[in-house]
Design goal:
The protein contains 4 helices and 7 strands; from the N terminus they run βββααβββαβα. With about 160 residues, it is α+β, with helices and mostly antiparallel strands. It has one domain: Gcn5-related N-acetyltransferase (GNAT) (Aminopeptidase, 3-Layer(aba) Sandwich). Helix 1 packs across helix 2. The termini are far apart.
């Protein structure tokens, strides 16, 4: 279970009513899981809510379905109550040398709470620690990735996709 420690003030009558703070483990309001059967519609929704839809074929459900079906690592983050999808990491790995994290999307309402970092950690855990984790950053992610421990690589080369 993912747990966060919070400080909750409690009155200790036996100590003369002096307030004391105790660290109490609290469950996070979300869960992480492998979800290889993620639907194209659910993937489309998180792309839109994260802002990533502008750089993905979000309007093409057939293509999104193929993207989900052909990824061999799909990690989701869902609300513990209600199960709403608030994050996804979609990757392709050989589980030995490299894992390409092709999509990292977190709902804008939940960004800044460590969900993206945990999705990356879970992806790396599934892909294997001996496999390098590789991603191409969206322009607005340039400052985020160094902040969570990724190092920039200056020799990436790309053949652009045909539309």
């Amino acid at each position: 279970m993912n747990a966060t420690r919070v400080r909750i003030p409690l009155l200790a009558v036996c100590l003369g009513g002096v307030p004391r703070c105790y660290s109490v483990p609290m469950a996070q309001p979300w869960t992480f899981q492998a979800e290889p059967g993620l639907s194209a519609r659910a993937f489309q929704g998180i792309l839109e809510r994260s802002g990533l839809a502008a750089r993905r074929p979000a309007g093409d459900l057939d293509r999104l379905e193929a993207m989900c079906r052909n990824a061999n690592i799909l990690i989701t983050c869902r609300l513990a109550e209600g199960g709403g999808l608030i994050g996804v990491a979609r990757a392709v790995s050989d589980f030995a040398y490299c894992t390409y994290l092709s999509d990292l999307a977190v709902d804008k309402d939940y960004q800044g709470q460590g969900i993206g970092k945990q999705l990356i950690a879970k992806t790396r855990e599934v892909g294997g620690k001996r496999a390098a984790l590789i991603l191409l950053s969206a322009p607005d992610g340039q400052d985020y990735y160094p902040h969570i421990g990724l190092t920039k690589h200056n020799s990436c080369w790309v053949i652009r996709r045909e539309e």
